[in-house]
Design goal:
257 residues; alpha/beta; Rossmann fold; eight-stranded mixed beta sheet; globular; GDXG_lipolytic_enzyme
Length: 257
């Protein structure tokens, strides 16, 4: 594993092949990387980045994983969306952007012939699982990396100093309808296969959140599995240079021929 676990967040990476726009706001865009010519056709991977939904973090830190996946034959779109701390971010704009982006990007790329895979990390893992609950357009599957899969519990734990309250505009007792809509743990599990991967050394999102979500989803009939990785922290899951990365790629590969 790299000595600096956060090094991936700022690692230089070649620019994307193109950037597409799915709305009028400057953040309603996606960076696109295409596989090498002649590569075996694989489904589009839409990457939903983390950062506790805050404006301080954008899609750029997922560039290394996107470049690695593209080199492995996947078309990849790094989805951007409005985040808390900026106009339109939070409820409901952040959620509306994910719906609009996941719906529009395959069409914009001429890849609407097959449902995409969703790969989400941390807050992006929450958004990927949430999208799969309603899926206005189908997805092939979800790989959620250390997802914030229980918003009420994340609020109780005060993860990232009020991140959930900033996202939804209050706590569960103040805006219960928003939690009922936005919290994957309070909804019927998604109809598509979901794989959750979580490191046991994660200090940002406790693995207990994924354990509880997986158990409840499976009890509700959901096709959800959890892979726990010892000696793995939060950012190793998005780092192609880490020992955890092959596990992430294997999870994606298990969802398509």
């Amino acid at each position: 594993m790299p000595s600096d676990p956060r090094g991936v967040l700022h690692r230089p990476t070649p620019p994307p092949d193109t950037t597409v726009r799915y709305g009028d706001h400057p953040d309603q865009i996606a960076d696109v990387r295409m596989p090498p010519p002649g590569a075996k056709a694989r489904p589009l991977v839409i990457v939903v980045h983390g950062g506790f939904w805050r404006a301080e973090w954008d899609r750029s830190h997922t560039a290394p994983l996107a470049a690695d996946l593209a080199a492995s034959g996947y078309p990849v779109a790094q989805l951007e969306y409005r985040r808390t701390g900026q106009p339109g971010g939070g409820w409901p704009g952040t959620f509306a952007d994910v719906v609009a982006g996941v719906t529009a990007v395959p069409q914009l790329l001429g890849l609407a012939w097959a449902p995409p895979l969703l790969l989400g990390h941390s807050a992006g893992g929450h958004l990927a699982l949430w999208y799969a609950l309603t899926a206005p357009t189908p997805v092939l599957g979800v790989v959620a990396l250390a997802p914030v899969a229980d918003l009420a519990e994340a609020h109780r734990l005060d993860l990232d100093r009020g991140a959930v309250e900033a996202l939804l505009g209050g706590g569960p007792s103040e805006v219960p309808d928003r939690y009922a809509e936005a919290d994957p743990s309070s909804r019927t599990p998604p109809g598509v296969r979901s794989v959750i991967i979580h490191g046991l050394q994660d200090r940002h999102v406790p693995v207990e959140i994924s354990r509880k979500y997986t158990a409840n989803a499976r009890a509700g009939g959901g096709n959800v599995s959890l892979i726990e990785l010892p000696d793995t922290e939060h950012f190793a899951l998005i780092d192609p240079q880490s020992s955890a990365w092959p596990v992430v790629k294997n999870a994606l590969q298990s969802m398509h021929p």
